[in-house]
Amino acid sequence: MSLPPGFIDELRNRLSMTQVVGRKVMWDTRKSNQAKGDMWAPCPFHQEKTASFHVDDRKGFYNCFGCGAKGDVFKFVQETENASFMEAVEILAREAGMQMPARDPKAQEKADRATQLADVMEEAVKFFRLQLRTGAASAARAYLDKRGMAAETQGTFEIGYAPAGWQGLFDHLTAKGIAPQMMLDAGLVREGKQGNRPYDVFRDRIIFPIRDPRGRCIAFGGRAMDPDDNAKYLNSPATQLFDKSRTLYNHGPARAAAGRGAPLIVAEGYMDVIALSEAGFEGAVAPLGTAVTPQHLDLLWRIAPEPIIALDGDTAGLRAAYKVIDIALPLLAAGRALRFALMPDGMDPDDLIRAKGPEAVQGALDAAAPLLSLLWRRETEGRVFDSPERKAALDKSLRQAVSAIQDPVLKGHYEREVKDLLWQLFRKRPERGASMNRPGGQKRGGAFKTQPIAPRATTRASLLARGDEGAQDRLRETVILATLIATPQVIEEFEDRLERLRFSEPSLARTRDAILRAANAGAGQGAEAFRETLMQNLGAEALENLLTADHVAIVPAVRHPGNAEFARLTLEEELTKLDAHRGLAAEIAEACEDLSGAADESVTWRLGQASAAVLSATRSQQGDSTEHDIADNGLPIRRDERGKLDDLLARISQGRSGPTGEK
């Protein structure tokens, strides 16, 4: 809304800075000079005992020499009331007796009508409060006493009582000269059937006035005293003043408390809010007879960047929290977060305060979990992921949930967190039937701690330990694949050699093919897009198993993903070694076929050349008795190759065509 020229200046001229600020501070009379408008007080924005907060009434500014807070009268109202600029203007305009300008005649007419309805609502507040003191309200007062609501608290929240008669409020307002149509428009009465007089909406109920952030009474909530009443709680119907999907109970006081640093707590109902406020948690609000809506979340984030949803510790409370997750995900952004505090099972905040005191509530708030933790709990609690299909279903449901986030930066953070949680969950081998709602360990203080994992039973069956023939080839092949995954930008340089590479196992060949396809599909999109495409094709578990294999994880090119120099050196070395060893193996096989009669000198020459290639390829590698043996001629030859070569050389030296001794 735009304001006409001169309106702000006129409003500022009508206001006394000292008077506005004086509602929030206690002036230091010894240090202040009221005649000159030179006032001092302890600062309302930080805790202090000395008067370092200065107001210059003539200039219309304040300044704290302790914390540095400064501004004009509008800034002061914004900070102390946690209000927007236009809300601060409205507050000060009412105090100065100035009418806020309307944008057009219809808007002015509507504003006038809203003011009239608000006046009617104030008359109803007075009526209900008076009724609470009558003999007819004895049961209502007994109920409030039983709930521990002191008289002072009842006054603070303006608790009242609607008498059991059908037209108690209607008759009272009629006597005040208020037209029935105004009562109908305010949502206080309903049309009588067949031409009968209107009747009261609220009857035999404890009444809770509902005020907007500006302090106007816009609706009422009523708790039935009759246990057989169909509606335990009843709110006013929708009116020009009231829309329950856009209204929070205790909005104004909670906003002011949040502006002073109090946590913003979203409870379930009136009694929870009142109990929390009286226990010192003054930033408590509640939706009104409806689930949390996107409009509610917008209101909450205008007050504080990270409201705490405090829900009952039962199944219904958890279901309500899960619904909030789905509503909130598309609206999340930096500075727009949520945390969830679940009360002990079967208790709401009011119960917890009365049973264990404010300290128990503070403990629940301190342990409030971020939205992602509750999302993870919803998708995993009570489920076992002992098959690829179940794991894929979890992966899919989490991705669908995260995809609702509109903010690209936040969405990226969520995707990385989800990947980490999945990695922790899938790398663990739970017993059948074990609960999977805590990935890799216990949840402490809202964060997941991974428990140490025992050595895997598969270690004794590893390729190296078994000494399988061809095991070294498979080890080198997995190192090559892991290096490509860690630094995909080098794939193009080695693509031809990779396509010609013969893998020892079909699964490794399929992984090579998936890597090449992902590199082509994600060209120019970066390592993250490449990894995402690869995970979709291979699955998270297959990728994790490859990258965390013991002999792979220690390779520098894998430990330093994105380092192109490490990757090129590793790929060149491992591909060259594979070519050399496979060349020697091929020569040995061919030599066996070529031998006929006496030894052929060309055979020994070819074997020498192949062995020299092996020596050249492995010159940079340290000798390791688990990987290489040294042949008689000093060449590092693999064990499986050495046996064949020894047999072949013996046959050549003896001039035999076969190992049996036949000529």
UniProtKB/TrEMBL annotation:
Protein's organism: Poseidonocella sedimentorum
Task: State whether it acts alone or in a complex, and with which partners, per the record.
Answer: Monomer. Interacts with DnaB.
Domain comment (free text)? Contains an N-terminal zinc-binding domain, a central core domain that contains the primase activity, and a C-terminal DnaB-binding domain.
A single GO molecular-function term is: DNA-directed RNA polymerase activity
BP GO annotations: DNA replication, synthesis of primer
Top-rank taxon, per record: Bacteria
Protein name in the entry: DNA primase
**Can you tell me which family this protein belongs to?**
Belongs to the DnaG primase family.
Q: Which SMART domains match?
A: TOPRIM, ZnF_CHCC
A Pfam family recorded for this sequence: Toprim_4
Coiled-coil residue spans: none
Q: Where is the composition biased (Basic and acidic residues)?
A: 625-642
Question: Where are the CHC2-type Zn fingers located?
Answer: 43-67
Q: Which reaction does it catalyse?
A: ssDNA + n NTP = ssDNA/pppN(pN)n-1 hybrid + (n-1) diphosphate
Q: Where is this region: Disordered?
A: 432-452, 618-642
InterPro entries linked to this entry: DNA_primase_core_N_sf, DNA_primase_DnaB-bd, DNA_primase_DnaG, DNA_primase_Znf_CHC2, DnaG_bac, DNAG_N, DnaG_primase, TOPRIM_DnaG_bac
The record, for Gene3D superfamilies, names: 3.40.1360.10, DNA primase, catalytic core, N-terminal domain (3.90.980.10), Zinc finger, CHC2-type domain (3.90.580.10)
What does this protein's UniProt record list under function?
RNA polymerase that catalyzes the synthesis of short RNA molecules used as primers for DNA polymerase during DNA replication.
Co-factor: note: Binds 1 zinc ion per monomer.
Output the lineage of the source organism.
Bacteria, Pseudomonadati, Pseudomonadota, Alphaproteobacteria, Rhodobacterales
Which cofactor names does the annotation list? Zn(2+)
Q: Which NCBIfam families match?
A: dnaG
Q: Which UniProt keywords apply?
A: DNA replication, DNA-binding, DNA-directed RNA polymerase, Magnesium, Metal-binding, Nucleotidyltransferase, Primosome, Transcription, Transferase, Zinc, Zinc-finger
